[in-house]
UniProtKB/TrEMBL annotation:
Domain of life, source organism: Bacteria
Protein name, UniProt field: LPS-assembly lipoprotein
Biological-process GO terms, alphabetical: Gram-negative-bacterium-type cell outer membrane assembly
Xref: InterPro entries: LPS_assembly_LptE, TAT_signal
Record Pfam families: LptE (PF04390)
A GO CC term assigned to this protein in UniProt: outer membrane
Origin species: Methylopila turkensis
Transmembrane segments: none
Coiled coil: none
Length: 184
């Protein structure tokens, strides 16, 4: 019995593994920091630095109906419905749109579905300065069913454009949250 190979029972082996997993989980839990967490020195109920900085972003007007929808969505996502406070950053967004008909009915030659593709190039700058802090590009697509009824087709296209604009606004907000949380 002087062999260094000690055979562990299956129950004991499982218990050791569970203990290791629990220990590693506790060790890694200390590395997690919520994005909207307030600073340790701030008062209870006060917004954290990420939320405060997001509210200080001014979104410049974006051309077109879809641009207006995206701007309104960005303002709501960044400020949460609060009134504009002191502006520290300016967000410029350039939007381009493209449409396709990927599926065509072989008997009628009419498209069955259409796809709207939006691309947004954005730049975050400090207010009153020209040097950019963040430059990026976001892309979103949304499909809709083509209808022979003109109003239904226009409404479906607008719905698809609005969905794509909302997706891009959420992606831009996420990127800004990351910057304000990490400084990168």
């Amino acid at each position: 019995m002087s062999s260094p190979d000690i055979e562990l029972r299956p129950a004991r082996r499982t218990l050791i593994r569970a203990g290791l997993v629990a220990g590693l989980s506790l060790a890694l839990a200390g590395c997690f920091r919520p994005v909207y967490a307030p600073e340790a020195s701030s008062a209870k109920g006060e917004a954290g630095p990420v939320a405060v900085n997001l509210k200080r972003v001014d979104v410049t007007p974006i051309e077109g109906r879809v641009g207006l929808k995206m701007r309104n969505e960005l303002i709501f996502l960044l400020r949460g419905g609060d009134a504009a406070g002191p502006i520290a950053y300016r967000l410029d967004v350039a939007l381009s749109q493209r449409g396709q008909s990927p599926i065509v009915d072989p008997f009628t030659g009419q498209p069955e579905t259409r796809t709207v593709s939006l691309t947004a190039d954005y730049i975050l700058k400090p207010a009153g300065r020209l040097d950019p802090i963040i430059k990026g590009q976001e892309f979103a697509t949304a499909s809709y069913n083509y209808s022979l009824q003109r109003f239904a087709d226009i409404r479906a296209q607008r719905d698809a454009e609005d969905r794509a604009a909302q997706q891009i606004a959420e992606k831009i907000r996420t990127r800004l949250q990351g910057y304000f949380a990490t400084g990168r």
